[in-house]
Amino acid sequence: MSQWLRCLALVLSAGTAVPVLAAPRCPAGDAHALAAGAERALARAEWPLAARQFTCATRHAGDVALAERATRTAYDSLQIASAVADARRWLELVPDSEVARRYLATGLLRLYDDDAAAEQFAALLNTSYQDRARGYMTLLEILAEERNETGAARVMERLAALDPGLAEAQYAMSVLWQRAEDGKRSLAAARRAIELRPAWRMAELAEVRALSLVGSREEAIGKSAVLAAGGDLFSRINHAWLLLGNGRRAEATAVFEELRRSGTAASDALEGLGAIALDEHRFDDAARLFNELSRDPQNMDTVLWNLGRIAEQGGDKLLAVRHYQRISSGSHAVAAQTRTFRLLRELGAPELAEVQMDEFLATVPASTQDVIASVGSLLAEEGEGDQAIALLDRALTLMPDDDMRLARGFLMERLDRLPEAVADMRAVVAHRPNDPVTLNALGYTLVDRSIAIDEGQRLIVRALEAKPDSFAIQDSMGWALVRLGKLDEGRTWLERAWDNSRDPEVAAHLGETLWLQDRGDEARRVWEEALAENPESTPLKRAIERHPR
Known about the structure:
This protein is mainly alpha-helical. It is built from 32 helices and no strands. The longest helix is centred in the N-terminal third of the chain and has 15 residues, at 114-128.
């Protein structure tokens, strides 16, 4: 792995946001010289250095073009702290710049400074959008791209309070709370939007999605069916995918076939029918459908991803690699490259796997974080824990980043290096005290490993307050209560999480709880049901092994 680690010096400098806004130490020199140095650094793919030099150059000159260049470079290189500093300088020079304020607002959100971000988004809404309804829809598009999903929803909630009678504001809030997995808040906002603007199809669809999120699946399907019957194309497509997501394949197939025959949504229909065929292991049918979908070049990433899955499930690893290697962008890119890395190693070509990953990371810096974490996880699974930790250690040396530190914490926990795992997680919580994902990660670790159960439960409570409908946090809460001896309360939370997710780890916890309550037959039924759907689940297998018949 030495070659792989050496290559990180280039690619990991793409990093993501550092947790604090520390001012860089600026070298001596005029703005022109610093800017020229920044351009040279960019040419060498030394993104952090380029961002620092551009930031320093803006301090030496009141140059709008330079401030804009610095902001865009830092942002595109994922050097968010620098981007925020540069955007502030840009706004000082051009106070009414919509673009500069947008960079500042989104940068603050990526730094998890939700309150400051909300102030900037409010200023953006008030100064840049005379049409308030359109303004909310535009801001929805921006906020829906952010990883800080809970923060984005909170920002929109504050904005919507400025226009309590505007349906678009409520709709935007509903969509963002859905992304944050808060079904109750999403549902309330969707229904308020419908009250303000009756029969608005987008709000009605948001209500359907929110109902699914809170577990009211039959009501969601019923309302969706009514919308689909109205003939609206988008509603029909949405209904088909909703049916499929709830395991009603025959009904979904009928809707997709109808759409295919009508020719009005051929791509959606082919993708849906292909997904069903793949789920049913009808590989020839799936391949035929996805190849038909490839007639539209816009669908190629989806086609290649699914053809790779077909080949992999059919045992042709080399063909799967060939398909995955052709995906360099889009929503499947990171997963495809991670799969390529694993398959090449399984095919006995680890050096080729490393070269493939190097090339991908060097050309797509924004993917660095996800891929490094995924590769680290794969190495740990393959018994190469030391190499996995070395990978993340090097990443953090080159670019300190909270998400990367959290990934290292997860790996440390898997490798039973508990003091180091907890230290990493605590460091991230200190920077992100309101991030439910991080709070839950630390809380669950403290509970599950019996390190500090009371403290862990308190952290999980905080996480649950932020994301009450998250099955993962519900599971953590249930398990914490069980470990505290509160079996009935714990089982209630675990049953809720199991109903909301059908997740195998939740099933393992629920079964363990039932076993402790002398309800062994019920525990077995839960485990066996979950194992039938997840035959490779390690937590389930361990639970069953601990309690033989």
